[in-house]
Amino acid sequence: MFEASRKLFFTDCRCAGGDASNTYEELFAKLDANKDGKVDVSELKAGLAAMGIKTGRGAAQKIVSSGDSDKDDGLDFTEFSKYLKEHEKKLKLTFKSLDKNNDGRIDFLEIKQSLADLGVDISQENAEKILKSIDVDGTMSLDWNEWREHFLFNPATNLQEIVRYWKHSTVLDIGDSLAIPDEFTEEEKMSGLWWKQLSAGAMAGAVSRTGTAPLDRMKVFMQVHSSKSNKISLVGGFKQMLKEGGVASLWRGNGVNVLKIAPETAIKFMAYEQYKKMLSSEPGKVRTHERFIAGSLAGATAQTAIYPMEVMKTRLTLRKTGQYSGMFDCAKKIVKNEGLKAFYKGYVPNILGIIPYAGIDLAIYESLKNLWLSRYAKDTANPGILVLLGCGTISSSCGQIASYPLALIRTRMQAQASVVGSEQLPMNLMVKKIVEKEGFFGLYRGILPNFMKVIPAVSISYVVYEYMRSGLGIQK
Q: pLDDT tens across 389-418, in order?
């Protein structure tokens, strides 16, 4: 009975207009078990299961949340039919975009190609696994009805949307500015979703950096002041900072650190799009190595533009009480005492640091992603939040280890003039001096608080990003 009605529903719904509305009405009546004119999460879950319609974990809750415009924890018929109609339109557009040869069917090669276009390379075997999970009639290809039946009650609009989870997003803000920029599909660019995504990411970065600012200040403090003869422990360093300036001093330099997120994100995004066009071997397709080169060049372009703010952030972070009244006073005193060239101290090691950071970060993320897809992607390519956060945290941390010595050299060069008795050394002599006096591990001073801030930074930025996406109306 339920199986028959299910088949009837999906067959009838090929038509549009009034017939589709009648079919939605019949389905709504079946799902509304207690006949109160509203379908809640438990009714939706039980009704779809009884009809043999598979849904992912938490799918019923997401469907109700997405369609529930009056926020009464249930869908009335108007909300229910509106959700299905809008969802079906998106599914149709996606089906057409995946159907590369326009024959009305999707095969495993088209799935493989679509994923490759999104930067996810999977084997033929894994593409066939994904296809089989959707294929009802066993023809090893999908027609519109099979695609629609599989995804109509799945809150992920399409295969592409699921795989976009794997986009190595800068939403995982760990306070560094060296990551590969965010990447958006043509659909996101055309619809204007890209600026909402960037805005959500910028807000997430601002809250994340503010939350972990004391650890960031400790890192800079140890990078500049800690040595073999002047060992600064984590606890001792915090005591020193609290004694000198009180609790508020733990957030010194955070204002500039937050302020530079917006211009840097915008410049990096625009530059990245241009570099991708210049470097891609085929229009619309960007390979991993091309993405890395474009991302590194975009990062270098953005860093060149906002680097004076990086120098001011370091000076304000290290300042003593009363040294500067604020950001503009800091800039004025740097120009007066050292000249404009002081705003680019440490620029060379900073630019050099982009290459190992972005390269290792991207390579490890791609490796972890492909490892997960080859081993666990049986029914879906969606890895879940914990896997994504884990991959992002591990890859970012490995990138930091590789680039940290250059970051330390950059910070010391930025701070030289503000530290009493400090020599004004170029990069090569500074490296030589540190290694001679403190050994190789002297290049890793302050890495402990840097690692300590990674997990809270990633967690805070992810939570804020999700709230911002919801607030800006970006569909999950």
A: 888 888 888 888 989 999 999 999 998 877
Cβ neighbours of residue 325 under 8 Å, at least 6 residues apart?
A: none
pTM of the model: 0.66
Nearest to 314 by CA among 343, 348, 355: 343
**Residues 431 and 438: beta-carbon distance below 8 Å:** no
pLDDT tens-digit series, residues 163-214:
555 665 555 566 666 666 666 666 667 667 778 878 888 898 899 999 999 9
Residues in Cβ contact with 337 at an 8 Å cutoff, skipping those fewer than 6 apart: 417
Q: Are 362 and 145 in contact (CB under 8 A)?
A: no
Question: Scanning the structure block, which residue is given the tokens 């974990």?
Answer: 57
Residue corresponding to tokens 């529903």: 9
Q: How far is CA 409 from the centre of its chain?
A: 28
H, E, C per residue of the chain = CHHHHHHHHHHHCCCCCHHHHHHHHHHHHHHCCCCCCCECHHHHHHHHHHCCCCCCCCHHHHHHHHHCCCCCCCECHHHHHHHHHHHHHHHHHHHHHHCCCCCCCECHHHHHHHHHHCCCCCCHHHHHHHHHHHCCCCCCCECHHHHHHHHCCCCCCCHHHHHHHHCCCCCCCCCCCCCCCCCCCHHHHHHCHHHHHHHHHHHHHHHHHHHCHHHHHHHHHHHHHCCCCCCCCHHHHHHHHHHHHCHHHHHCCHHHHHHCHHHHHHHHHHHHHHHHHHHCCECCECCHHHHHHHHHHHHHHHHHHHHHHHHHHHHHHHCCCCCCCCHHHHHHHHHHHHCHHHHHCCHHHHHHHHHHHHHHHHHHHHHHHHHHHHHHCCCCCCCCHHHHHHHHHHHHHHHHHHHHHHHHHHHHHHHHHHCCCCCCCCHHHHHHHHHHHHCHHHHHCCHHHHHHCHHHHHHHHHHHHHHHHHHCCCCC
Residue with tokens 């990551």: 179
